[in-house]
Automatic annotation (TrEMBL), chain A:
Binding of GTP, residues: 7-14, 32-36, 51-54, 111-114
Source organism (scientific name): Terrilactibacillus tamarindi
Binding, Mg(2+) 2: N18, T21
UniProt-recorded name of the protein: Ferrous iron transport protein B
Sites where the protein binds Mg(2+) 1: G22
GO MF annotation terms: ferrous iron transmembrane transporter activity; GTP binding; metal ion binding
Keywords associated with the record: Cell membrane, GTP-binding, Ion transport, Iron, Iron transport, Magnesium, Membrane, Metal-binding, Nucleotide-binding, Transmembrane, Transmembrane helix, Transport
Main location: membrane
Membrane topology according to the record: Multi-pass membrane protein
Its job: Probable transporter of a GTP-driven Fe(2+) uptake system.
Annotated InterPro entries: Fe2_transport_prot-B, Fe2_transport_prot_B_C, FeoB_Cyto, FeoB_GTPase, G_FEOB_dom, Gate_dom, P-loop_NTPase
Originating gene: feoB
Location relative to the cell: Cell membrane
FeoB-type G domain residues: 1-160
Bilayer-spanning residue ranges: 280-301, 342-366, 420-446, 452-472, 513-531, 543-561, 609-629, 641-660
Automatic annotation (TrEMBL), chain C:
Highest taxon of source: Bacteria
Lineage: Bacteria, Bacillati, Bacillota, Bacilli, Bacillales
Family annotation (PANTHER family): FE(2+) TRANSPORT PROTEIN A, FERROUS IRON TRANSPORTER FEOA DOMAIN-CONTAINING PROTEIN
Name assigned to this protein: Ferrous iron transport protein A
GO molecular function, one term: transition metal ion binding
Record-annotated Ferrous iron transporter FeoA-like domain positions: 1-74
Protein keywords: Iron
Gene3D superfamilies: 2.30.30.90
InterPro entries: Fe-transptr_FeoA-like, FeoA, FeoA_core_dom, Transcriptional_repressor_C
Key word Iron-sulfur present: no
Amino acid sequence: MEVALLGNPNTGKTSLFNELTGSYEYVGNWTGVTVDKKVGTLKKQMGQLIDLPGVYALNPISKDEGIASQYLLENRFTSALNIVDASQLSRNLHLTVQLLEFGKPLVIGLNMVDVAKSRGIAIDVNQLSEELNVPVLPIVARTGKGCHDILNYFSLKNQHVSHFTIDYGEKIEKAIENISDLLHEEQLNHRWLALQLLQGNRVVLDHIKINKGIDIERIQRIIQELDKHIEEVEKCSLVRTIYSKRKHIIDDILSKVITREKKSDLTFTDSIDSIVTNKFLGIPIFLGIMYFIFHMTFNWIGTPVSDWLDGFFSGPLSGWIGQGLQVVHATPFIRALVLNGLVAGVGGVIVFVPQMIVLFFFISLIEDSGYMARVALVMDRIMQAAGLNGKSFIPLVIGFGCNIPGIMAARSIEQPKERLITVLITPLMSCSARLAVYSLFAGAFFAKYQALVVLSLYVLGILLALVMAKIFSLFFKHEHSVFVVELPPYRIPNAKTLFRSTWDKSKGFVKKATTFILGGTVVIWLLSYAGPHGLNVDIDHSFLALVCGYIAPLVAPLGFGTWQAATALVSGFLAKEAVVSTMSIVYHAPHSGTLTGVISQAFTPLQAYTFMVFSLLYIPCLSTVPAIYKEVGTRKLTWFTVTYCVVLAYIVSLVIYQGGRLMGF
Amino acid sequence: MLFSYIFGILIFGYAAWTISRFIKKSKQGRCATCALQKACEQKPSTCSNVVQIQKNEPQLIRNQHI
Amino acid sequence: MILTELKKGEKATILNLSRTTKLVQRRLLDLGVTEGEEVCYKCALPFGGPCMLEVCGQCIGLRRNEAKEIQVVRT
């Protein structure tokens, strides 16, 4: 059994998906959280559940919506589960009607019945089910209420195929009939296909074109004739007419189903919005929130815990492991591998877990609250100046967690040009992996102003991204920029969701550190341990020092022309955390204390800041490159993205370092 | 001595395995090491869909008549 | 009159949407915003930034230049 999960954006499809499959997928409170098809196994092994991006209608505008429509056309799923937002019934039912026309077994999950209730909207579920001729199950996906009923429903074998047809009027019905006749070779519901074609659905048209036996030209002639006729008679386009017919039926159903107790009540959301989208305070509040997050991450919670961890790793833990190795008579080679390689390298990354947890907690908080869409609104004017729109800012904010989902989030942007530019600039966003680099350097050099220094790097990333966006947009044909964004009501973030989201992201960080960062660490350590003159050489005569010594002069004008820094940057291409683990190894000397101490001897504050800027910009990590390729579609553009990042990083770092020196830092 | 050999082989074996797996996954375009890994989980088949839609896109936008 | 002439918090009925960009029209239609719906002009951001509207029980953000193409009548 394969069940497709469909519904309007931000109606809780993924929340329900998580409940029904017992998995954890990314949820949030804005339009376009899910931009891809996700497959999960229904509890009790009943079959598969497919989570799809939210759509308002089956005729897509943006790329994520296209994925949902394409799924309907190409996959033979058993039944569809339509999530309907009870507080926005009228709008949601437009999609439901189209899904009913599709003719597959359908069941409606009426979500957010609690929100609807608080707004004074009471819905007669039985009546709704009767009117639409499909089962309707009320649920609250966020808390899991009623989700069990859905599982029970799917465990029943006899699934109900609804027969729901709207009479679109004589002329349109005639056209539907004529088109249906031409579609006899198609397997999908002919009436649905015909209706989608009448609405100008390109994805459907392209699907039909594959089938050679269908007379496309005749179909298009029928559509054109009808369009002209409707235009003359109704003084309204064909698409509008179909929409109105549906709306009429929906309004009729709603009048029988809904009883309103009082006027809609949005006061909570209104009062928050009057502050965060305030004329003058909007942007300062966004920066203030960011600063607050960094202050919590570094000065208040993260760093104190992290310092303690660091002390524990380099002190007692190393001691215990050393003693343990002595007991089993390990060779010096193994001792060095474990203590100078694994403990120093992987430990050097793991100590930053506290900062990550705090940061991820706040990112999850923003994602779940509803603030994200407001940020898009507040930033729209600035983004417009850079040739983008406010929606492009959402991928950038997501990029703060990890660039890859940020790049994918660009799919929800309507205009192809703006979407492409957003993908190109997202690698400049400071992801959490880079935060490990900042934690190390800011802790060593700018202990008091850590939060401010880190904020400056984030803002620098955004500013450069905007400048680059402006430059890129000059090379594109001018397209009318569009910005329409739905601002969902604020929600008190769900404790369970927050916990799951923070846990999941932090777990990812630890997993990365203990798998392939560990692998890389072992390689780097071996290269630093071996040299042309055999094993256990002085680190300055190791293979690592020799090879990276050639790269060092290239970055010397930026202030860090040592082979150690060069090595860190090279391995940083694999993953930005590797910068830290590599530094832990190459600067590791017995009894030299913590890494922070060694680093503060090896760099000046200006060099340290320049190094942070360079690490921020210099290259998208190895995992990000394929993600970019997948979104931009060409190798050329992918290479271009990587190259421009390197060039930009070099220029900006050069300006900062040489400028700083001139100013006497 | 025997312990050292076994331990060394284990560590290097694990390291080689993690690196090879990482490179393999990166080539597939999957976010093998991303902190938000699960957020981008997908079947390889989706990728082709995305590219296909992209090709059609200019028309998709141009041809909408309201 | 046009939408942006409304004062903050004022309500009006939409008369004509056809002068806005096609893509915006489609998105608005997706959100259920059509002629005859009641709209509340909530606020606008500085330097010609977007404005915030309440229509059909939901809040939406829209560029000011698009909002200027929407004709309304005060209710």
